Amino acid sequence: xxxxxxxxxxxxxxxxxxxxxxxxxxxxxxxxxxxxxxxxxxxxxxxxxxxxxxxxxxxxxxxxxxxxxxxxxxxxxxxxxxxxxxxxxxxxxxxxxxxxxxxxxxxxxxxxxxxxxxxxxxxxxxxxxxxxxxxxxxxxxxxxxxxxxxxxxxxxxxxxxxxxxxxxxxxxxxxxxxxxxxxxxxxxxxxxxxxxxxxxxxxxxxxxxxxxxxxxxxxxxxxxxxxxxxxxxxxxxxxxxxxxxxxxxxxxxxxxxxxxxxx
Length: 263
What we know:
The chain is built from 10 helices and 9 strands. It has helices at about 15-25, 45-50, 65-75, 110-120, 135-140, 150-160, 200-210, 215-225, 225-235, 245-260, and strands at about 15, 35-40, 55-60, 80, 100-105, 125-135, 160-170, 175, 180-190. The chain is an alpha/beta fold. Helix 4 runs parallel beside helix 6 (about 150-160). It has 2 domains: about 5-190, Vaccinia Virus protein VP39 (Rossmann fold, 3-Layer(aba) Sandwich); about 200-260, rRNA adenine dimethylase, C-terminal domain (Helicase, Ruva Protein, domain 3). The longest helix has 15 residues, at about 245-260.
């Protein structure tokens, strides 16, 4: 059945069998694994996941029409959740010990990733294997002191070690997007820097990178009354720009901010 993709939902269905097989191979799925697929679309990847015979497969699909097709095609082989992942509450998402896969809609891919990173503090899942627009993947994986480095890099790398698996041609999708994609593998870090709430790191990075071209003493002044003490304590160069600070430095700045607001 040919399904007309909805541009409003950012639907570009992955159709290339080699890439579909690569995803499940890199996920290293075995019979003891529980797999969650976000945005299964027409079920091309779902079918490959089922070939690996995992313990369970849960798919989360926002589109009602696609959900009906998935239900028809896979019946009781999958657990189907017809909801918007971004609107789901924590109690409705059991992510612990799961492998999470997804060819994510371009228009909400970063929001989905940030939600997954936030959820990781409560749900320890095994790994993520997600498809992004290449330009977004470049920002996620960027090192400090580079053009693509920014808020998304710092937040993404907080709880995850991230590996580029493969750049994927537009020809691998229907309809064919105007840009290339990149498959990324996320492995949870064994030790995560102690931050109380990720929303505080979001605030810190938003403040710094809204002043990207300014020296860091300006955002520090906005955040801390005792900004000069923070500069000395963390051995910061006040003349640096936001892109000059590595992720660990931002995590330390965030920790100092939390100390100031949770007194």
